Amino acid sequence: MIEGHGDDGYRYGMVRMNFSSNIYAHADLSALKAYLAAHLDCIASYPEPSARTLEALIADDCGLDASQVLVTAGATEAIYLIAQTFRSDPTYRVLRPSFSEYEDACRQEGYSETEQAALCWLCNPENPTGRVYDKDFVKNLSRQHRLVVLDQSYEYYTDRPLLSPLEAVETGNLIQLHSMTKRYGVPGLRLGYVVSSAALVALLRARMRPWTVNALALKAGEWLLREKPQILPDRHAYLAEARRLRERLDKIAGIEMEPTSTNFMLGTVHPATAAELKDFLALQKGMLIRDASNFEGLTPHHFRVAAQTPEEDDALVEAVKEFVTP
Amino acid sequence: MIEGHGDDGYRYGMVRMNFSSNIYAHADLSALKAYLAAHLDCIASYPEPSARTLEALIADDCGLDASQVLVTAGATEAIYLIAQTFRSDPTYRVLRPSFSEYEDACRQEGYSETEQAALCWLCNPENPTGRVYDKDFVKNLSRQHRLVVLDQSYEYYTDRPLLSPLEAVETGNLIQLHSMTKRYGVPGLRLGYVVSSAALVALLRARMRPWTVNALALKAGEWLLREKPQILPDRHAYLAEARRLRERLDKIAGIEMEPTSTNFMLGTVHPATAAELKDFLALQKGMLIRDASNFEGLTPHHFRVAAQTPEEDDALVEAVKEFVTP
To answer: Are residues A36 and A216 in contact, defined by beta-carbon separation less than 8 angstroms?
Structure first.
């Protein structure tokens, strides 16, 4: 595991505004919290060793069979589980820049990286760029590799078309990762799931450690699947706000923002470094951003932010202006 | 992962009394639950990628340095992490009968079992027997093997002397597992920790997946370490009750109970099988026991129970009598 992921507010103490992870920080979780508060008794019993109840609900929701769904402690557990399960053919490729855990998981299992790899990892929408690859690109990729892992953790933060769970299963050699963390703004719970063919899910399930998902996370997941609350803001309006933030930041001298199809975006700062910008914003303004310099292929000048409310985004723009002004 | 661990009440629906896992089912968790209810906001942020705050509290509590402590998602995560970390010398030995996950974890990593193994697993107090090995036995074991894993998950359920965390660290080649699940009666949270030399902890930490411990589990752990609430019943009285239950069960024709130094105990039923006894108790009486036949070396007749309240224990005795009476 590398140090330096986003949402590391615990390093700075008081954080007033959080732009550092890729999720909307103001999700209305009051109903979910009330539900959990009423179900805290579940801490006194073992959770199901594997999360069959939640898997059945997800399968139902996606029009799949429960044998095609595997619940994990966040997408992160799925990433390590996949690297472990398929290590008998230990070559991999990551479409970069991307989430560092794919590479960490493969290296831990002794994989080496090649262009013609057995296992190909794609994050779509891509992190940290916010780019979205189209469906044909993904399907082509699945023809070029023995196995493709398609991490759709950010799927609820774009309006571009993505592979559906059913399409993912039909591809036959594709494992699709989904994040309940990102969808519902609950990164503290550690909850995600894998969708793939029953044959591939069975291989993963055989490798799964028991009880990795905490009982409260399962309770929350079951409630979210049953209730389907609208926890994120209206997607259309939120993406419009992200475009507005991107344009305002891009106009600042010394800042260049890359295009994005999601709520988060990559930028560079010059001549200062992203680490300096991050420290200034955290220590002077109580604002947390992501220093993106530790993504492979990026530079010490790269940072990433996710749009929040218009007021917060405006405050970020003003604070960045203050930083770059001599 | 095998099927058929204890506490599988989710298979039977209504369970009125739970003797199936090794923990006291009536721990008073009201203060912990109130604390968690007031801190549900933590689900909206990522937990620390590794649990440094809780590790510092545990180290403080044990008189160790934080570099000698590693928090995991239950002892189960530690078991798999150990098997993975030390697989370059893939021979193991388990002192049996014992918890099946040691073997599952080693097999998954390609270990083979030999008497003169590099890696030796001991659960002390032992599960499912309730036997306690003395300190000299454990120290001798550490001289015979390159590395010893000493799982003290049930340490708070015996009054026999066990290796302290400090003694475990001083041994040099010993990894000691501790379960907050068992200590505080919170198996739903998935929380445990490893104590070992800083060098061995560093090897494990390098292999650790990020964010495996859910934010509410960390919050609970921090509160439990700070408050040290008396959640289990008085140990002396509880062990006396366990001895009383054992004696009453042992007097039933067709039932033989083995000696135990803890709150749980292994027994056999004849001529019926443990599976039949379990089904009768669950379906007719709403009582859950552990069919122990899937512990390697045991028979279809072995079952395990943990003492609960005197009233519940009496009810179990009567129900077992009813089962064996033609």
So the answer is: yes
Residue B174 has pLDDT above 50, yes or no: yes
Return the higher-pLDDT residue of B304 and A2. B304
Of the options 3.50.50.60, 2.40.50.140, 3.30.1490.20, 3.40.640.10, the CATH number for the domain spanning A41-227: 3.40.640.10
pTM recorded for the entire structure:
0.91
Contact B207 A108 (CB under 8 A): yes
Q: Which CATH architecture has domain A9-26+233-324?
A: Alpha-Beta Complex (3.90)
The answer to whether residue B76 neighbours chain A at the CB level (below 8 Å) is yes
Q: Which residues of B touch A103 (CB under 8 A)?
A: none
Residues in chain A closer than 8 A to B77 (CB atoms): 209, 212
In this structure, the strands spanning B192-195 and B255-257 are unpaired
Paired sense of beta strands B302-306 and B264-269, if any = antiparallel
Q: What is the pLDDT confidence band of residue B217, given thresholds at 50, 70 and 90?
A: very high
Secondary structure (H, E, C), B202-230? HHHHHHCCCCCCCHHHHHHHHHHHHHCCC
Q: Is A45 on the interface with B (CB under 8 A)?
A: yes
Q: Where in chain A is the domain with CATH 3.90.1150.10?
A: 9-26+233-324
Could you tell me how many CB contacts below 8 A there are between chain A and chain B?
154
**Chain Cα centroid distance, residue B99:** 8
B49: contact with A, CB 8 A cutoff: yes
B30-227 placed in CATH 3.30.479.20: no
Distance CA B180, CA B178 (A): 7
